[in-house]
Amino acid sequence: MRIFFAAFLIAVFSCGSTYIFPWWSLAIVCSIVSIILRLSTGKAFWVGFLGVFIFWLTMAFFRDQANDHILSNRMAQLFHLPFSAIFLVVSALVGGLIGGISAWAGAELRLLLTR
Description:
Number of strands: 0
Distance between the termini: 27 Å
Number of domains: 1
Radius of gyration: 15 Å
Oligomer: single chain
C-alpha cells in the first residue's frame, strides 16, 4: 500500500513541479520522495518508474488529444510504428526510466548519508 501511495505522490508532485519548473524537475521530486519515505533501492526504482510512467503517459495523452494527434501520428510514421499510441507508450517508458533511476539515486543517497 505504501508503494502505491509513494507512486501517487510522485505522480502528483511531478505534475505540479513540471508546470512551474523544467521537465527534469520530476527527477528531483522522485529523489526527494524516496528519501522521505525511506524506500529500499529496489522499491524506490519501481515506485519512481510507476509514478512517472503514469504521469508522463497521462500528460502525453491529454496533450495529444488537444492537437488532434498530429504530432504523435507524424512521429509514428517517422519511426515506422503501426499506431501512434505506441509512440506515447515509448515516451512514457523513457520518462519512467528517468523517474526510476532518480528515485533509486535518492534511496542510495539516503543509505550513504545514514551510514
